[in-house]
Amino acid sequence: MRLTLGKHLRLAAVYSVALAVSLPIALVSISKLLALITALLMLVTSRTDQHPLAVHRLWPMRLIGAAFLLFWLSASWSTGTTAEIVKSVSQHGNLLIIPILFYLVRSRKEAGIALSIYCAGQFFLALSTCALYLKIPLPWKLSVSDETLAVFSSYLDQSIMTAVFAAIAWHLRELLPQRGRSLYAGFFSLLSLGVVFFIFMGRTGHLVAISILTLAAFWAIPRWFRPAIVLAPIILFVLAFSFSPIVKERFLAAKTEIQAAVERGNVTTDATSTGLRVNFWADSIRAIKASPWSGHGAGSWNSQYNTMQKAMVGDTFIEISGNPHQEYLFWGVELGLPGVALLLAILFSLYRLSKTMQAAGRRATQSVLAAIATACLFNCALYDAYIGDYLCVVLALVLCYGLKPASAHADRPSEQAAPT
After folding, report:
1. Phi and psi torsions of 138, nearest 5°
2. pLDDT in tens, 83-100
3. Integer Cα distance of 40 and 99 in angstroms
4. Rg, C-alpha atoms of the chain
5. Residue 4 — very low, low, confident or very high, per pLDDT cuts 50/70/90?
6. How many C-beta atoms lie closer than 10 Å to residue 397's C-beta?
7. Which helix (H) or strand (E) holds 407?
8. What is the DSSP string of 318-337?
9. Global pTM exceeds 0.85
10. What integer pLDDT is reported at residue 103 of this predicted model?
11. Reduced to 3 states, what is the DSSP secondary structure of residue 134?
């Protein structure tokens, strides 16, 4: 009775997180709290897990724990306020959902069910966006504008989310009914990519979609032809630019905004979206140069940026609160170059781990990693509240699907964990 209750609580926590990432952020926070409480209860009531794939034995999980600890320690030398420090550390804690879910999920079957629930939620979001595009009112979307057709978040977040869903639906099509499997997977993927390229105006989402399409093409073509894959991103971008009015408009606007930012100089006043990013990145690099080995501490980015901008603009400058819209530079400002190396080490160790999986799990995992690596170039994708939760949850689920044994009672570490 006790074991059954514990199993039900564990699965309820996993499945609620898998569904919540397609729902409003309040439900995401509640589901994450449920997962954390469940994991703590299991740790207290269970023996230490000595399984070769136990959380504490995997290098990516160790590095994630080390990163979270380092952010806490950096508070002692941070130039940020107490509120900024607490916010920074807590949001960098998005990464902790990866080891938490990996600990809670015990088998590939459980991970497959969680991924099916996730896919159902993402399909619901994609259909809802299509309905909004067609001016169909939805009771769960109270306000609609021409620019924001996302359902529960921003177009920036949902364009990335939908691009990732396209990859998951295609590479994990084995989760679908066998009859008509490829047809269903193709429909889900094409619908999602259509939403990304022809409805959403998020440039990061466009680039994420191109990155995962490049990977899919790499795996689909013969090995002898794979070196030519370097041309794929260019070809895909040209096609998107030529056939999607939104892609063309957004990237032409980016070109104009960059030119204006260069002419205006590194100041925030009257800056455009792309211009702000250029300013953020330039000052982030200056902040890293000022303290390359220890950084300025968790929550310090605002104080560093505002100080630099005030020195340029003067007392008329209005301080901002945010982040540099670039994850690698963000870690560099707060933790110095070791922070950048730590983030890259986390991503690389996850990639190395994915190479032990069979094709479906490996390709799904590497597609999510490619999406994260791309999104982090233009946004703080792991740090931001909604998209950070989403990416970490999806990454955890595909890791579980690729690494966990087929059943919770399997004796071997993974019945499928062999390179193919």
Report:
1. -120, 135
2. 999 999 999 999 999 999
3. 12
4. 22
5. low
6. 30
7. none
8. PP--S--S-HHHHHHHHH-H
9. yes
10. 95
11. coil
